[in-house]
Design brief:
Layout lengths: L5 E6 L9 E4 L13 E6 L2 E10 L15 E2 L8 H13 L4 H8 L2 H48 L3 H20 L23 H15 L4 E5 L5 H14 L3 E5 L6 H12 L3 E4 L5 H13 L3 E4 L11 E7 L17 H12 L2 E6 L4 H8 L4 E5 L10 E6 H6 L3 E2 L2 E2 H12 L3 E5 L8 E4 L16 E3 L4 E3 L6 E3 L11 E4 L3 H11 L5 E4 L10 H9 L5 E4 L12 E6 L13 H13 L10 E6 L5 H7 L6 H13 L5 E10 L2 H18 L13 E7 L5 E2 L2 E11 L4 H18 L6 E5 L3
The structure holds adenosine-5'-diphosphate and zinc ion.
Adenosine-5'-diphosphate binds next to α6.
Length: 744
């Protein structure tokens, strides 16, 4: 045993609720790797790059059991204190091991990329060092030669010799002068002259000043600005200020698909101070972005995972479309909200925070009420008033009157004709991808289902296959019923079938589709969006992606087919979600002050969501009503929900384990029956089976625990987490249990 050994605690990129201890031989000066240093270690027979979380600790286990670290990874930059602080916050709040947060923040690809890049950089530095050393030697030689010649010249008396020596001296001097002082490293941060910022409208200017006012009082701000009001330009002005004063900006967006248009706009303004960051990028592209962030004074346009970048000088965090559910990560852990984590990031850096949206989330409205957020409104559209007309078509009634042709009402068909005649473009929203969400036998009524999941199979006609949208299982489709040999017909219409219908109705129009089945990147989604914005496509059919922040100049009609499928989610957030989708979609049209049309086809036109969208005087009323309801039922944002998901390959044990777990939770919190525990205000719902209760051969059971927001909340969450963890260990089902704080 080596008495000189020192001990470290290390965070590993694993689901591990403790931080293992390793030993290290101190460096020549007795140094021990400090907190944040990356070290390679072996754990359970595998090699990992971990992060030192505590340095020079006194081990609490037998010293002989402690392994030596493999090496200190000098090539990878250490993790900063603020990064670790954010990880600890995410780990505590979302009830997951800090190792899972580390893994999300530094996916192995990013580590490898960084190592490769740092090796490349080291090699380049070495090359440069050698070149400069050679240069220095040459300079010394030349300097000596100049001195020798000068001496000879000064000593010479005969004019001819003097002239000869002068010539030699001048030549040597010139050679010396031509020698560069030093070969500089390749500088890729070429300076960039920023385009002048656009002048803001009076409304934008006022709003900007209000935001700055709140920022100067250290208050985060919610910018509630209607679609088309020009929030982007307000963000740009704020970001430019921060960059000019040497700081960095994080500009978060919910989806990569929207980033192309916005990225181009930001590139125009900020040049190579802009860094993109999202999970679709290659490892080396991402590590380049990471390096840019480390160098500071840049603006990052990124999706939720960019919240974990190693910012040094963060001055402003912008979360655009803050209401968007895509900010929430569902699988794998950490199941964090990019928006809420960004709020903490800003706080830890002392940076300003701006949330922007046309349809604030209830959480943010609630935060405005409690004073955690200041609210600034931008009610005016940049190109003038919203003259968009909303038309609701009752499909149930049209069907009775024979006013429907497939998925389309004749009313919609007429509107589409008018739009095309006027040179306008059309965007159609259908929230289901595939050709048809199901197929059915016309003889025996059979609907083929996934053998592994509790759902019907969707027909993907272009691929000639039936597919499961939950587990990906698929089989060739030959339209013959496996039971009776009858003919299988499409049931309902997905985006592919809508495209087919549109092409039949408008044979001259150029029609395209955009949905989750497309490949992302420049040949898939991006190409369609580009072609649509350049007017190369007349009618675009898509899933919810078409509702997101796009800005298409010639769009004159947006329409929703089967809007009721948006209300389909059977949970307390259904109305809120449907409303946000419809409002966002409406916001795509009439952005240039032209008159736009928003048409909704629904079988339930009396639903309050449609009434609200169609009403002239839209205000916060509905949100207020929903908030009041949430308050009455003790739903979020007035409480926190923690959802426990249990999966088991055996239906019986899924049911019995879930029942036992729910019972244990109730008894832990002293809840009997359905009565809420008054002291702690904890209630438990379930266990129950979700709408799709079997996915990939695993039966799913859910338990929802709701906790009031009070002083005991943090403690209650911890109690719940440790109870669930113990239950998993005792019943050997840890792997099948997961916790989700603030589930969607
Ligand atoms: P929002 O994000 O609020 O929906 P955008 O930022 O996309 O709105 O702006 C809507 C449209 O108005 C865009 O086409 C944008 O280029 C234009 N616009 C907004 N502000 C200005 C400005 N100050 N100068 C010129 N054009 C502007
Ligand atoms: Zn399946």
């Amino acid at each position: 045993m080596d008495g000189n050994l020192k001990y470290l605690k290390v965070i590993l990129p694993l689901k591990l609720d403790w931080e293992p201890c390793y030993s290290v031989l101190p460096g020549t000066e007795g140094g021990v790797p400090s907190v944040g240093t990356r070290v390679s270690v072996r754990f359970a027979g595998r090699k990992y790059v971990g992060v030192v979380s505590e340095s020079d600790v006194t081990p609490d286990i037998e010293l002989t059991k402690i392994q030596r670290i493999i090496r200190v990874e000098d090539g990878i930059s250490p993790v900063t204190e603020v990064e670790m602080r954010l990880w600890r916050f995410v780990s505590d709040y979302y009830l997951c091991p800090v190792g899972e947060v580390y893994k999300a923040a530094y996916p192995s690809l990013k580590n490898d990329g960084e190592m490769i890049r740092s090796r490349e950089r080291l090699r380049a530095e070495e090359r440069l060092r050698r070149m400069n050393a050679a240069l220095a030697a040459k300079r010394e030689r030349l300097e000596a030669a100049v001195e020798r010649r000068r001496a000879m010249y000064e000593k010479a008396v005969r004019p001819e010799t003097r002239e000869k020596y002068l010539e030699a001296l001048t030549k040597a001097e010139n050679e010396l002068n031509a020698l560069p002082l030093e070969i500089a490293a390749q500088d890729d941060s070429r300076s960039y002259t920023r385009l002048p910022l656009p002048s803001l409208s009076l409304a934008q200017q006022t709003c900007l000043e209000q935001i700055r006012g709140f920022f100067s009082k250290k208050s985060p701000v919610l910018l509630d600005g209607v679609t088309g009001s020009g929030k982007t330009e307000v963000y740009i002005s704020l970001a430019a200020n921060v960059l000019d004063s040497g700081g960095s900006v994080l500009y978060m967006i919910p989806e990569i698909a929207v980033s192309k248009q916005l990225g181009n706009r930001l590139k125009e303004v900020f040049g190579n101070q802009l860094a993109l960051f999202h999970s679709g990028m290659s490892a080396s592209a991402r590590s380049l972005a990471v390096e840019k962030v480390r160098m500071g004074n840049c603006i990052v346009l990124g999706t939720r995972s960019s919240v974990f970048l190693p910012f040094m000088d963060l001055g402003l965090v912008i979360v655009d479309e803050e209401h968007d559910n895509s900010y929430k990560q569902e699988t794998p852990a950490p199941r964090y909200s990019g928006r809420d984590t960004a709020m903490m990031l800003a706080r830890f850096h002392g940076a300003d925070l701006l949330l922007g949206t046309a349809t604030p989330s209830l959480e943010s409205l609630y935060n405005c009420r409690t004073g955690r957020l200041a609210k600034v409104m931008l009610r005016e559209r940049y190109f003038g008033d919203d003259r968009t007309v909303v038309e609701i078509v009752n499909t149930a009634e049209e069907r009775r009157k024979r006013g429907m042709k497939g998925s389309f009402s004749y009313k919609l068909i007429d509107r589409m004709k008018e739009a095309l005649k006027g040179g306008g473009q059309i965007l159609l929203l259908r929230s289901r991808k595939s050709y048809s969400p199901a197929v059915q036998c016309s003889r025996c009524g059979k609907i083929p289902r996934c053998p592994h999941c509790d759902v019907s199979l969707s027909w993907h006609r272009d691929e000639g296959r039936l597919k499961c949208h939950y587990c990906g299982w698929n089989q060739p489709f030959n339209a013959v019923c496996p039971d009776c040999g009858g003919h299988l017909e499409p049931l309902g219409a997905g985006t592919q079938r809508v495209v087919e219908e549109v092409s039949m109705l408008f044979p001259d129009a150029r029609v395209a589709r955009i949905d989750g089945d497309m490949i992302s990147g420049s040949t898939g989604e991006e190409a369609v969006i580009r072609d649509f914005s350049q007017g190369l496509i007349d009618i675009l059919v898509g899933t919810q992606i078409v509702t997101k922040g796009f800005d298409f100049a010639r769009l004159s009609l947006v329409a929703v087919l089967q809007a009721d499928s948006l209300l389909g989610f059977q949970d307390f957030r259904a109305d809120e979600k449907a409303l946000q989708i419809l409002e966002q979609f409406r916001g795509r049209v009439g952005r240039r002050g032209q008159r736009g049309l928003f048409l909704i086809q629904t079988a339930t036109p009396e639903h309050p969501v449609y009434k609200y969208v169609a009403s002239e005087q839209r205000s916060d009323d509905l949100a207020e009503t929903i908030l009041a309801e949430r308050f009455a039922f003790g739903y979020p944002p007035f409480s926190r929900i923690i959802q426990i998901t249990l999966r088991d390959s055996d239906e019986g044990s899924a049911t019995s384990l879930a029942a036992a777990l729910a019972k244990a939770i109730r008894s832990e919190f002293g809840i009997s029956g359905l009565v809420r525990n008054q002291a702690d205000q904890v209630s438990v719902l379930g266990p129950y089976a979700p709408a799709v209760d079997k996915v990939s051969n695993l039966y799913i059971r859910l338990i929802r625990v709701s906790m009031m927001k009070n002083q005991t909340l943090m403690d209650n969450k911890r109690r719940l987490a440790s109870l669930v963890s113990d239950f998993g260990k005792e019943n050997r089902c840890s792997a099948q249990l997961s916790l989700d704080v603030d589930p969607l």
